[in-house]
Structures are given as structure tokens and as C-alpha cells.
Specification:
The complex is a heterodimer of chains A (263) and B (264). Chain A is of the alpha/beta class and 263 residues long. Chain A is built from 7 helices and 9 strands, in the order βββαββαααβαβαββα. Chain A has a domain of 142 residues: Rossmann fold. Chain B is globular and about 75 Å long. Classes of the chains: A alpha/beta (263), B mainly alpha (264).
């Protein structure tokens, strides 16, 4: 992975190919073929596709925890931090908290990992817990919190490292519909002030349409991006907004036409 | 809370019943040369603790020696076992080379290990140490190894994504997940250790509870023999329940805290 000094894209991926060794044969299984995408700084971009299309693998490649076999992946820090190592935070499907550490220490864990100056820890913990609506829960243990609250801690943990890039892998898919809806609203409000670049993976088109500045649509067999859609509907948005619903319907039709064409 | 009191009550009651049976048996036999009563044994213990024994030392001295032997051999086995188990769990080379060896060590009967160690090292402290380590280390290593296999990979992935270094991973991700395995290894390993130490003391080491037990056995003094057995059992029970149980409840405070919340 290269870290360029200039360019307006926070994330740029060109012709990325990723293969997994196929068990029981000499062949390799191609997970991602010729993927290209660009995410501008401060934008919220979603990747929508069916399960198993390689969306999570793509995030892992960007996070630098998985290698790739061809193409180029470039990530940049925010404009104010040019030249620095870009900070990448990740929010997973499940909270993935360390249940034996208090909420506060879960955040300290990533602050230490990212070598954030110790003098700022208190401020970063307080600010981000406040932002996700969990002020006062510093000393509580994760297992005392509901699933929605745990996911809020995971979001606070990710934001605490002041990420240049925030990767989110279906972060609301394990929550009940009402909690998920509430969290989506809160995420919008949080991002209005925190403003990291976000790459958000989901299989839920309504969610993607509601949250994103633009959407990349992926198909399986072969895993590729077949469409990019810019969403110019002004914020703040409401999920019931007819413009959003119409767009979602149109995109669902697109999906089915691609799926049917692939057999 | 009520169930906890109940447990304590039931346990004390069953111990009390055992002592009563003992007392009734000794009263019926009425022969202190064969089965002295509980009170006579208690008196012998108190006497042994306060007066010099056949080697010129009170029982505290022998208890101290035995405890020191257990502590040293057990610590060495734990450290070696945890180290080997972690290495096997986290490193493919160690895993493949040691995996075949461990069952071999585990099938070796304990008493044979003690005899072998005595033959090689004589009646020395080194012999005891080798015997304990040969028996306890592989068991702890296997436990740790299984613990590493049962670790939640998604948490490791999370830590790596946030660029946590080796130390942070070990301290906050690996070790806490291994705690249940460490404690079960600790309990079993401790039980094994004191049995082997007692055996080694009985057969050849100078001083210690096992040594005194064997001394009185040779004199055919049944009250002294029983007194030393009782001292040993009481000491080990106190250690297991007083020390390990406390350590364990502290280590898992995060669990019980949430349980308490859940019930309320």
C-alpha cells in the first residue's frame, strides 16, 4: 500500500485484484477482480452488495490487514496532517469490545495502540463517549450494556483515534430495526462534527441511500463494481423522504437486472 | 446470596458428619493404638506445633519447608508450562514439533516420574523439582495451547486493525481470554504438585510434612501419623479455597459484575 502526498482522494483503489487459495485444488479463487474506486476526503461512501461478494475483504485490504494480488491501494491522511501515517479506524458488525476492560479502558486500548499522546486520553474518551450518548459510562463493563450501547462504544472507540479514514462493516446489521434506525440518525449527527472519510459496507440499500454521498454497487460472480451512484439529496435527510425511497427502488431494480443477467 | 450461604452450610455439615463418624468409630473401638479420636489428634497437632519434634524443630518448620518446595516447584512448572503452551498456540513450528511429545509426557504415570527423578538426581531438591516439572508442565502447556485455540479471532483482528503491538495484544487480548485456562491449569497443577512433593518427602527428602509423616509411620505412632496427614490436608484446603478461589473471583470480577446487574 502506498501513501501519496497529494491528491484529493482519501482512498483510491485502482484495478485491485485479490485471490484466495482454493481448498482442494491448485486453482485460486478470485475474491475481488479489477476493483476501482475513489473516496474524496470527508465524504461518506457506501459499498452495497449481496453477502459473500467480497465487501469485507475489500475493507480488510484497505485496513492493511489483508494482502492483495494486483492493482494499487492508496490512502491519504487528512489535509491538515499531510505526510503523516494515515490513521484508519474500523467499526465491525459486532462491537468486538474487550469485555474484561471498562468502557474507558477499551478506548484507552486503541489510543495506546495508535500512540496517541497520553495527555489527551481523558479528553478523547470524554468527548467521544459524550458524542455517542454514553457520557458517564466510563467505568462500566461492556457486558452491562445493551447491544446498541456496545456498538456505540465501538463507534466512540473508532472516533477516539481521530481517524483519517473510518471503515464500517455493516455496523448496524446485528441490531434490531429501531435501535439501528436511532444509531443511523446519531451517526449522521456525529459525523457532522467529526468529519472523517467513511467507507461503509452494507447489503441494505435503504441504509446506504440514507447515509451516503455516493454508492458503489457490487455484484458477485465475478465480484466487481457495476455502478456508481451519486446521492445529491440534501442533508439532514429523513428515511421516509420520497426522493430517497424512489432512488432506493430504482437501485433495487438495477441490482436484480444485474443478478438476472449473471444467471 | 441465599444459595451461597446454603453451600457453606451444607459443606460444613458434611465435614461435621465425617468428624462425628470418626469420633463414633474411635469411641466404639476404644483403642487409641488403632484409631484415636478427633480430639486426640487435634491435641497432637497443637503439641507438634508448639514443641520441638524428633529433629529438634517444631511442626511450623516442616510446614514451611513443604510450602517452600511446593511454591518453588509449582511456580517453575507454571512459568514453563504457560510459556510452552503459548509458544505452541502462537507459533506453527512449536506447535508441530511439540504436539506429538506432550501426550507422551502426559501418559507417564506420576509415581514412575518420581522414582525416575530420584534415581537420576538422588534424594535432593533437584529431584523433587524435576519430578514436579515433568508431570505438571506438560499438563499446563496443553491447557494453555487449547486456550489459544479457543481464542476469539475477531478480537485479535480488531486489535491488529487498530495497530496494537505485541505487548498490548498479549496483555489485553490473549491473557484475559486465557485466564479460565490458566486457572484450571493452576488448580489441577497445584493438586498434582503437592501430591508429588508429599511423595518425594515421604521417600527421601529431608524435612517437610511428608518426611515427618514417614518418620512417625516407621515408629508406628498412629496418632502422630494421622496428625501429620490432617495438617497437610488442612493446609492444602486453605490454600486452594483461600488463595485460588480469591484470585479467581478477582480475575473474573468483570463477569460477576455484569451478572449481578443482569439479575437486579
Amino acid at each position: 500500500m502506498t501513501q501519496g502526498a497529494t491528491g484529493s482522494s482519501a482512498i483510491s483503489i485502482e484495478n485491485l485484484t485479490k485471490k484466495f487459495p482454493s481448498p482442494g485444488s491448485a486453482d485460486e479463487f478470485v475474491v475481488l477482480r479489477d476493483i476501482s474506486l475513489a473516496v474524496d476526503e470527508g465524504k461518506f461512501v457506501s459499498i452495497v452488495g449481496p453477502s459473500g461478494c467480497g465487501k469485507s475483504t475489500l475493507l480488510n485490504v484497505i485496513a492493511g490487514i489483508e494482502s492483495y494480488d494486483g492493482g494499487a491501494v492508496t490512502i491519504h491522511p487528512k489535509a491538515g496532517r499531510a505526510g503523516a501515517q494515515p490513521r484508519v479506524a474500523y467499526v465491525f458488525q459486532s462491537p468486538r469490545l474487550l469485555n474484561w476492560l471498562t468502557v474507558e479502558n477499551n478506548i484507552h486500548f486503541v489510543l495506546e495502540a495508535q500512540k496517541m499522546p497520553r495527555g489527551r486520553w481523558r479528553e478523547l474518551v470524554a468527548k467521544n463517549l459524550e458524542m455517542v450518548g454514553l457520557a458517564g459510562q466510563e467505568r462500566n463493563y461492556p457486558l452491562n450494556l445493551s447491544g446498541g450501547m456496545q456498538q456505540r462504544v465501538a463507534i466512540a472507540r473508532a472516533l477516539a483515534i481521530e481517524p483519517d479514514i473510518l471503515l464500517m462493516d455493516e455496523p448496524f446489521s446485528h441490531l434490531d430495526a429501531i435501535t439501528a434506525r436511532k444509531l443511523r440518525f446519531d451517526l449522521m449527527a456525529i459525523l457532522a462534527s467529526a468529519k472523517p472519510t467513511i467507507l461503509f459496507v452494507t447489503h441494505d440499500l435503504a441504509e446506504a441511500v440514507f447515509l451516503s454521498d455516493s454508492i458503489y454497487m457490487m455484484s458477485t460472480k465475478p465480484a466487481r463494481i457495476f455502478k456508481r451512484v451519486a446521492i445529491d439529496i440534501p442533508r439532514p435527510r429523513k428515511p421516509e423522504d420520497s426522493a430517497l425511497i424512489d432512488l432506493e427502488k430504482a437501485l433495487v431494480r438495477d441490482f436484480f437486472s444485474v443478478v438476472e443477467a449473471n444467471g | 446470596m441465599a444459595s451461597r450461604l446454603q453451600t457453606i452450610g451444607l459443606r460444613s455439615a458434611s465435614i461435621l458428619v465425617l468428624i462425628l463418624i470418626w469420633w463414633a468409630g474411635s469411641a466404639a473401638m476404644n483403642d487409641p493404638q488403632i484409631l484415636p479420636g478427633p480430639l486426640a489428634i487435634a491435641k497432637t497437632i497443637v503439641k507438634d506445633l508448639h514443641t520441638p519434634g524428633p529433629e529438634g524443630e517444631s511442626a511450623y518448620f516442616d510446614i514451611g519447608i513443604t510450602l517452600a518446595r511446593i511454591f518453588i516447584t509449582f511456580s517453575a512448572s507454571m512459568i514453563a508450562g504457560i510459556g510452552i503452551g503459548l509458544a505452541m498456540g502462537l507459533n506453527r513450528l512449536f506447535e508441530r514439533s511439540l504436539l506429538a511429545l506432550i501426550p507422551l509426557m502426559l501418559t507417564m504415570p506420576t509415581i514412575l516420574m518420581v522414582f525416575l527423578a530420584i534415581m537420576w538426581f538422588g534424594f535432593s531438591e533437584a529431584g523433587g523439582l524435576v519430578a514436579v516439572m515433568a508431570v505438571v508442565t506438560p499438563y499446563i502447556a496443553v491447557n494453555m495451547y487449547e486456550g489459544t485455540k479457543a481464542m476469539d479471532k475477531s478480537l485479535i483482528e480488531m486489535a491488529v486493525t487498530f495497530r496494537a503491538g505485541r505487548y498490548l495484544l498479549l496483555r489485553h487480548v490473549y491473557i484475559p481470554q486465557l485466564m479460565p485456562y490458566i486457572f484450571s491449569a493452576l488448580r489441577y497443577g497445584f493438586g498434582q504438585t503437592w501430591k508429588i512433593v508429599a511423595l518425594a518427602e515421604t521417600f527421601g527428602l529431608k524435612f517437610g510434612i511428608g518426611y515427618m509423616f514417614f518418620f512417625w509411620f516407621q515408629q508406628f505412632d498412629i496418632s502422630q501419623t494421622l496428625a501429620w496427614i490432617m495438617m497437610f490436608v488442612i493446609l492444602m484446603l486453605v490454600l486452594e479455597h483461600g488463595v485460588f478461589a480469591r484470585l479467581e473471583s478477582r480475575a473474573f470480577a468483570w463477569r460477576s459484575a455484569s451478572l449481578a446487574r443482569g439479575r437486579a
